[in-house]
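Narrative of accomplishments. A recurring question from our advisory board has been how the design workflow behaves on a single, concrete structure rather than in aggregate. To address it, we present the structure tokens for one chain from the evaluation set, followed by the sequence designed for it. No filtering or post-editing was applied between the two.
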């Protein structure tokens, strides 16, 4: 289990990556969460998008990003 340093969300409308307003303290908490029904506004295009594991990437203290299209 490693500390989560950063979570980014991918906007499917404008293809921008931005910092997530949702945060987890460690990789186990992130991996076991269900992340269903969350929405966030993209700071680039201001469209509301789903905020779930399918469009997130995570940077852990002991490694680079893991997740979609890293």
């Amino acid at each position: 289990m490693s500390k989560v340093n950063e979570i980014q969300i991918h906007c499917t409308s404008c293809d921008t990556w931005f910092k997530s307003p949702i945060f987890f303290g460690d990789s186990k908490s992130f991996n076991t969460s269900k992340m269903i029904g969350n929405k966030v506004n993209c700071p680039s295009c201001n469209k509301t998008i789903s905020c779930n594991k399918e469009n997130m990437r995570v940077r852990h203290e002991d490694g680079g990003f893991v997740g979609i299209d890293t």
